[in-house]
Amino acid sequence: MPGNAPATPKRVVVFIGGAPGEHLVPSVLDEEQTRSGDLVIAADSGLDRAMSRRVTVHHVVGDLDSVSPEALELARLDGATIHSHQPDKDATDLELALELATSLLPPAADTPTPIHVIGGGGDRLDHLLGVILLLGSPRLSTHLVTAALGQARVAIVNPCSPQLIPAPPGDLVSLIPLHGAASGVTTTGLRWPLLDARLTPGTTRGLSNEVQVAPAHVELQSGTLAVVCPGLAAPVVAIRSGPYDPSPA
Fold first, then answer.
1. Cβ(167)–Cβ(212) under 8 Å?
2. DSSP single-letter state for residue 239
3. C-alpha distances in Å from residue 55, one per residue of 11, 20, 64, 140, 226
4. The predicted structure's pLDDT at residue 22
5. SS3 category, 210
6. Which residues in the chain come in under a pLDDT of 50?
7. Model pLDDT, residue 107
8. Phi and psi at residue 144, in whole multiples of 5°?
9. In 65-80, which positions are buried (b, 16+ CB within 10 angstroms) versus exposed (e)?
C-alpha cells in the first residue's frame, strides 16, 4: 500500500465520477466524506471528485480516460498508486475499484470492512443501474455496503448485513430486490411496515415507502435488497380504506 494508506483500514471509500463537471456542484452529502482510518480509492474521474473536496486518495484505478491530467499528476506527487487499465476492458472502473478494494483488505478480518461509494447521480441510466447491481454483488455480501450518489443514499441489505435506513422521518424510501427474490423482509420505523415479507423482482411493492421513526431498520432472511433513499420528502397520502397486509408473499 502507499506509505500514507492505513494498513488495516476501518472502511473503504470509493469515489466515482458522473456527468462532466458534476463533481464541482456542492452536495448536501458533502459532510459524508472520509474519516480517519479510511482507505480511499478513486475510480477514474472520481479522483477529481475527491480532490475537489480535498480528500487524500491512496489508489487510482481505471482506464483514466476521463480524469483530468492535473488531478492525476497531483495524486502521483501525493504518493497515490496508479492502477492503469486498457480502455478495451470487460469491467467498469467501479468494478475494478471494488475488486482492488477487496484484494487490499485483510483476508482474515473478524468483521468485514465496510465499503462506501461516493459519486454523482450521473447522466447515464445504464451506468447508474450497473452501479446499484454492483453494490449488491454476491462477492460483497459479507461487507456493509453503502453509497451516496448525488442527493440519494443507498444501503445494501442481505442476511449478513441488516441496515439502518439512512433517511430522516418524512422522507421517501424504496426497497428494491436485486439478483432474485428477497424473503423474510422485516422493517421497523416505516409507515407501511413489512413483516417476514417476500419481495420479488418485477414488482413495485417496496417502492415509495416513508420513514416515520428514525432510525428505521430493515433486515431479511435471504436475498439482497437495495434500500434507496432519494433525498425527497414523501407526499401526503390518505390512509387506505381497506386492511393492509405487512406480509406479502
1. no
2. P
3. 15, 19, 19, 24, 27
4. 57
5. strand
6. 28, 30
7. 73
8. -85, 110
9. ebbeeebbeebeeeeb
Task: Count CB neighbours of 245 within 10 A.
Answer: 12
CA of 16: how far to CAs of 6, 45, 67, 212, 222, in Å? 21, 6, 10, 32, 29
Judging by beta carbons within 10 Å of its beta carbon (0-12, 13-18, 19+), is residue 153 exposed, middle or buried? Answer: buried
In whole angstroms, give the CA distance from residue 99 to residue 213: 36
Estimate the crossing angle of helix 125-135 against helix 93-104, to 10 degrees.
20
Note if the pTM is more than 0.85.
Answer: yes
Rounded CA-CA distance 58/242 in Å is 55
Alpha-carbon distance values, 96 to 11, 50, 63, 85 (Å): 18, 17, 10, 9
- What domains are there in the chain, each with its CATH number? 1-150 (3.40.50.10240), 156-249 (3.40.50.10240)
pLDDT at 106: 78
Q: Which amino acid belongs to residue 104? A: L
